[in-house]
Amino acid sequence: MNFPAFLQLSLGDLRMPFSNEIKYTILSLAILLFLVAASILAWQIYRYCKQKPRANRKVTGLQSTDEKSAKESIVENIRDGGSDTHNLKVEKLQDEIEKLSRCLSPASSLSEQDSVDLDSMLEEEEQESPRGKLRFSLFYDRELSRLLVTVLGACELPARDFSQSVDPFVRVRVLAGPLSEQTGLHCTLHEWETRLVKKSRNPSFGDQFSCSLTEEEVPNITIKLEVRDFDKYSRHAALGEVRTSLTSSNIYYPVETLDDLQAVKKDLVGEVLLSLKYLPTSQRIEVGLLKIRTVSWTNNQDKALYARTSISCNQCRLKTQKTPQKSKQDVTVFNEIMTFSLPEPHIRECVIAVTVFETSTKRRKSKRLIGQAVVRKRKASEDEHWSLMMQCLRQPIAKWHSLLI
User: Closest Cα partner for 78 from 50, 110, 119, 33?
Assistant: First the structure.
């Protein structure tokens, strides 16, 4: 194939249309850029090699330094936030833990004992924080043999949410006892609730309640006024309580009282005999409600008891079963066995709650809470009854539990 004469050029005849000065300038710029890139690469390699052992030292020395500093920072945050609400404190602590977890490896997170200590610190902080005050009056009318309880109002209640408000109401219980020095059991004679006041830290109630009491019964009576924050899902939060024994107060004259709210305490109202049996092959647990021991202030033949047993895991209720009604006695015998399916992940941390109610055989839809017994299994600790059940698989283990309210 023949090409034109002007295209038949050799490779040596090709020349760049630039002078030698421009060529040398371009070459020097290329060399300069190469040197800059090489120096940047060397600097990055140096920084990487220098920071890697430092990070390793942080991870290896975590248990002795970082966890201590994390605990100290958590304690300081708890002390500094004495006037904040419980929800704000929990969120601050969770933020601290999340920040710490970003800097640490998964194997070096907070231990279970640290989480238990954290819960105890929160409870101590709640006990030390101000809870507010409650204003009420007690009066016993000798002529009518009636006790009058008037809940007037409350002030300086702690806020429970970000709106800096609270929806309070007061639950009033008339407790008798302890009826026996050996058992120390109490009996709830009457229970009332005041009206609900929404979004007020200084509510005014003005509700009055009365009940019949003989003058001989008065020295054994304790009035428990518990201030609670209303929740539409029936998870009312306890803000505090005031207890008044009628033996230590002059109730024959109507005198108003302003008392500081204290931490809510449970009262022993009975005992429950429970049996637990775990079947690992079928992944089931059998909860046996054998007996319930309670005390009665009066002998009412129309009273009956029934219990509701529920199993919860991570604050989520899994199963619930209810026993039939039994005529109320000093020791009511049930002998009811309830079976629950409990897979392996749920058995590691769960709560068995037995709630006892009193009802009337003559009136429908009339029930009253007697108390609740709880058997719990946690990652850090477990109930003694639970540990005995896991040691003796496929065998029922019975144990008495306190019934509290």
Answer: 119
* pTM of the predicted structure, to 2 decimals: 0.66
CA distance 241 to 239: 7
State residue 149 phi and psi, 5-degree precision.
Answer: -115, 120
pLDDT digits (tens, 9 = 90+) for 312-364: 887 788 889 999 999 999 899 999 999 999 888 778 788 999 999 999 887 77
CB 202 within 8 Å of CB 166:
no
Residues in the chain, total: 405
Distance between start and end Cα atoms, the chain: 110
Q: Which pair of tokens denotes residue 227?
A: 């201030």
pLDDT at 71 over 70: no
Pairing outcome for strands 168-176 and 268-279:
unpaired
What does the pLDDT read at residue 13?
53
59, two tokens? 């991870």
